[in-house]
Amino acid sequence: MNIHTLDKVFALLLFLLGIYITTTSVEYGYMQGTTPGPGFFPFWVGLLIAGLSLVNVVRSIARRETLDNEIDVPGVIKSVIISLLLLAFVMFSEEIGMLLGCFILVLLIAWVIQPRWSRTFTLKIVATAVLFPLLAYLVFGVYLNVPVPLGTWFS
């Protein structure tokens, strides 16, 4: 299987996943009174995944992307490590909380992608690691009034 076929298959699978997430999220309830329900965020994330995957399929069919015909081993290893970090985040976020978990996740993913950090890169990553959880808390915890798990350490 060449890289172009793999790209099309993966984009199609992501499209189907996005449709599944969107249709399943409706069962959880889109709104609860005047506040977003548990299905609100998954609904929009599913639509976003499906839409962007559809764009990727069209671009791949039209050959608008230039892809190398090889998948290098370091790239695969980085992908596996990042997937394991995301799995660990999901498994431990209830214990350590979403805010601290997001902070740690951003730093670790940045380290996997680029192990040697310049001063500028370090400042950008630390700012992202601090601002992303803070912004997520303000949007979901404060503005939308959705409970954000703070973990057993901070409860």
UniProtKB/TrEMBL annotation:
Keywords per UniProt: Membrane, Transmembrane, Transmembrane helix
Claim: Chaperone is one of the keywords in the record: no
Transmembrane segments: 41-59, 71-90, 96-113, 125-146
Pfam families: TctB
Domain DUF1468: 9-149
Domain of life: Bacteria
Name the UniProt record assigns to this protein: Tripartite tricarboxylate transporter TctB family protein
